[in-house]
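Researcher: Next sequence.
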Amino acid sequence: MNLDAIDIRIIECLVDDGRASVETVAERIQLSATATRRRIRRLEEQKTIAAYRAEIDPERAGMEIRIHVLVKLQTRSRSEIEQFERIVQNTPEIQSCDLVTGQYDYFLLIHLPSMKDYHKYLRQFLADNSVVGSIESNVVIGKIKRTQNLALVVGE
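Model: Next structure:
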């Protein structure tokens, strides 16, 4: 699906404020409410807008430590991949998991209350998962930029 400049402006408005009314979005993009509603509905039906969610501040929720974890599996057999991905799906501490290219196989984002909790989690995670070959952890010490915007650009 190709997005035009109006679709992109609608998406940007909703990323900024997912609770904005159709009328508010229409006013911001200078389009009628009826046309804006129709476009939003189309974007939702086509799954360009996949969901509306509350964004939680992990630190205010007691999860002060954010860790990026690179995981390399013992082997890349189908059974090990399926086993690891099943474990990830059932582990609430893992906020996101991406399959990546390069030296490692997966990139995880984990939020925990403290380094003590991470140490305990890591020991348990490694003990319970024989498919994991190696892990490299990177503790986030500061946030530089965080956005949900997709730098959408209209083709010429």
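Model: The two ends are 15 Å apart (CA to CA). The beta strands are 65-73, 94-99, 106-112, 132-139.
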